[in-house]
Amino acid sequence: MARIAVGGFQHETNTFAPQQATWEEFVRADAWPPLLRGQEMIAGVEGYNIPIAGAVKKLAELGHEIVPLAWAAAAPASYVTEDAYERMWKLFDEDLRKHGVFDAVYLDLHGAMVAENTEDGEGELLRRIRGVVGNDLPIVASLDYHANLTPEMAQLATALVGYRTYPHIDMAVTGKRAIELLDKLLKEKRPVYRAYRQLDFLIPLVWQCTFIEPAKGIFDLVGELEAGEKSHNQGIVSVTHTPGFPPADIAQCGPALVVYGHDKEAVEAAADKLAATVKAQEKAFDGELLDPDQAALRAIELSKGAKKPIVLADVQDNPGAGGTSDTVGLLAALMRHKAKGAVIGMIVDEEAAKAAVEAGEGNIMRRGIGAVVGYGGETPVEADWRVVKVGDGKFTGTGPFYGGAKFQIGPMALVTDEASGVSAVLAAKRVQAADQEMFRHVGVEPAKVPILGLKSTVHFRADFQPIAETILVVRSTGAHISDPVDMPYKHLRKGIKLRPMGPVWNGA
Fold first, then answer.
1. Residues 6+ apart with CB under 8 A from 209
2. How far, in Å, CA of 90 to CA of 127, rounded?
3. What CA–CA distances, in Å, run from 328 to 18, 115, 290, 349, 369?
4. Between the CA of residue 301 and those of 271, 294, 304, what are the distances in Å?
5. What are the start-end ranges of the H helices in 134-255?
6. φ, ψ at 330 (rounded to 5°)
7. pTM beyond 0.85
8. Residues 6+ apart with CB under 8 A from 385
9. Is the dihedral of CA 257, 259, 260, 263 positive or negative?
10. Which residues sit opposite 471 in a β-bridge?
11. pLDDT attached to residue 229
């Protein structure tokens, strides 16, 4: 039995988003648990599809002593404030010093955290932890699929283990895999070699989905390399590829991979093979984006002969990538073209949601909704909104991505513009529209509506693709800019392409 310190600090930072991640955002619960510290962490993460939950469960199964540090996550936004970053580090520092000595450390990290005081949030955290526990103690961390895996992270961690699915349905599984690797390293005590590679082009999030090619085939290869092919040396113990998070204006933004194993030549060969495979698929990372009017008109036409909903992915206003979830370009287009029966969610407008609750079901609410932040100069959509159903925002996710999540997102309401027949789901807090229960909570059965607009980029596919006739990808106003060419970068490393087959960035 080993003594394992366990903690986590998760944030996906869109440096172009309008709102920062403050300490309060890490402390509160939303779809995921609130700040947890010490023994409360064990029970606090149970049942969630998150890495820390899978890790804790596996550690218990293996009989290791779990020493909980602190764990916190905040919804994607712009820079983590220096205050929040340093407060979280203080908890880690105190607990590492108070509870040591350890045999190993497991960390639940994202990999795309940018703080006001450091552009490599995870690399800096690992550096500080190394300063406390030393250079020899095994540190294994799980990473999000969208990690910008930096050279410093690879150098400072003993091993990094990333998700292999997007939508992320394997988060808890990844925590389990990280612990299995850590357990193997502790028991075998063999030298571990590492091979790290970066790719030279950014991949838009919307085309990173592992349900479709080319990402599906690439991640099939990741699994094959790790398992060991007949022709492949069995010295490989772990393979991770992270396609990157383009809305992060940092030098090390972009796809990367890392391979670990006991045979140096095999490790280098596997890394070269995977890097070459990703590079060979560069041209395939592309697809069609529609503007809101094109999307509305095409959806209306397709819905006439469809037996299932036409799903519109409002990808640039995805709160899961730093969007405000309140832009109204797609909503206005659906209303303009009278897409009767269409429902869009979630429009995050706390005051409108409260007003709907106050007005009461069946009554008319005369006001504007959405455009709270006013991103892109937008203004609220004015209409006579019929309040169809209200909710308290407390429900449990049931889909593959959010399954088990205990939502606490404040007042919600379904409101309908009777002039166009278009409805919107209002919410008080930002949560990505990736679970059908968000709609059922306010009386909408998603499978029964003709057109369904979702504030999400890819995660919605886990729960909504099975019920969709087809999916149209919409580029409307939003802080999550889909095409990296349109992002006002200042800090990328020179020589990286701004999109697959696209222009090379040579400085601002």
1. 166, 167, 215, 458, 461
2. 14
3. 16, 29, 15, 11, 8
4. 47, 11, 6
5. 151-156, 171-188, 215-227
6. -70, -40
7. yes
8. 356, 364, 365, 366, 367, 369, 415, 416, 417, 424
9. negative
10. 311
11. 55
* Two structure tokens written together for 171: 């988060």
Outline where 75-190 has alpha helix (H): 82-99, 121-133, 151-156, 171-188
Q: Which residues pair with 191 in a beta bridge?
A: none
**pLDDT in the model for residue 353:** 98
Q: 271: which 2 tokens?
A: 């890394």
Measured on CA atoms in the order 299, 303, 306, 312, is the torsion positive or negative?
positive
Q: Quote the strand ranges of 35-113, DSSP E.
A: 36-37, 65-73, 104-109
The owner of tokens 């905040």 is 74
| Domains, the chain, with CATH or none | 1-189 (3.40.50.2300), 191-288+484-508 (no CATH), 292-482 (no CATH)
Name the nearest CA neighbour of 106 among 21, 14, 177: 177
Residue 287 has what pLDDT?
76
Look up residue 353 and give its two tokens. 């949601």
Q: Going from the first residue of the chain to its last (508 residues), give the mean pLDDT of each consecutive group of 10, the final group possibly shorter.
A: 97 94 94 94 95 98 98 96 98 96 97 98 98 97 98 98 96 98 94 96 94 95 82 75 97 98 94 98 89 98 97 95 94 98 98 98 98 95 98 96 92 97 97 97 98 96 96 93 92 96 90
Q: Which residues of 162-191 are buried (b: 16+ CB within 10 A; e: fewer)?
A: bbbbbbbbbbbbbbbbbbbbbbebbeeeee
Q: Which two tokens stand for residue 315?
A: 């990808």
Distance set, CA 61 to CA 1, 58, 309 (Å): 11, 5, 43
CA 398 to chain centre: 18
What is the predicted pLDDT for the residue at 322? 85
**366 - beta bridge partners?**
384
Tokens 């020493």 sit at which residue?
67
